[in-house]
Amino acid sequence: MSLEAEKAVFQQKTRATPEQMADLEAFRLRLAEANEVMNLVGPDSLPDFWNRHAWDSAQLLTHAPDALTWVDLGAGAGFPGVVLTILLKDREGAHVWLIDSLRKRCRFLQEIVNALGLPATVLNGRAEEQRVRCDIVTARAVAPMDKLLGYAQPYFERGAQGLFLKGEKAESELLEARKSWHFQAELVPSQSDARGRIVTVRSLKRAR
């Protein structure tokens, strides 16, 4: 499928407005340019931007349609955080925190936020040390579940729920995480990749 065809499919699935599509296209072009000088995403994945990256991120909104405030841990190249921010841009009260420990990634994210006028805050530092309250804490390709829950714990303590994009090892990662954590979890298949899973986590507490 061509890039333009995938773009049209994405718009049909998300019902994104022309303005949102323009922002996403601007993001795609800036990502491709930045990726030439820093390793933000695998270069082979850029031709599949609309499904592998944009739709993979956007599908989270179907699982939390009323959530307005999000935190993206290890935001990196902006997935899912930047995509979510663009799609939430015109909703009153919407805000996304993009957190990453690498300064160069944060510079890239801040450039995107500034260029597109997004309702987002970029924070450079360790995820577990930020004092942010949100509806949903999310992450993609950051760490195995047991470690990821450690990063996310402070947000759960402030009332958040977790909504994480994971791969085909999601089930085994959850089993391993239960050795260190008590939580409720639900797995559903990803709509962008049959091998992927979306993991919803609630009521997180460290095991004694």
UniProtKB/TrEMBL annotation:
The keyword NAD does not apply. One of its GO terms (biological process) is methylation. It is found in: Cytoplasm. GO terms for molecular function: methyltransferase activity. Its main location: cytoplasm. Keywords: Cytoplasm, Methyltransferase, rRNA processing, S-adenosyl-L-methionine, Transferase. Pfam families: GidB. Its EC number is 2.1.1.170. It catalyses: guanosine(527) in 16S rRNA + S-adenosyl-L-methionine = N(7)-methylguanosine(527) in 16S rRNA + S-adenosyl-L-homocysteine. It is an enzyme of class 2 (transferase). S-adenosyl-L-methionine binds at residues 74, 79, 127-128, 140. HAMAP family: 16SrRNA_methyltr_G. Belongs to the methyltransferase superfamily. RNA methyltransferase RsmG family. Specifically methylates the N7 position of guanine in position 527 of 16S rRNA. This is Ribosomal RNA small subunit methyltransferase G. It comes from Brevundimonas nasdae. The lineage of its organism: Bacteria, Pseudomonadati, Pseudomonadota, Alphaproteobacteria, Caulobacterales.
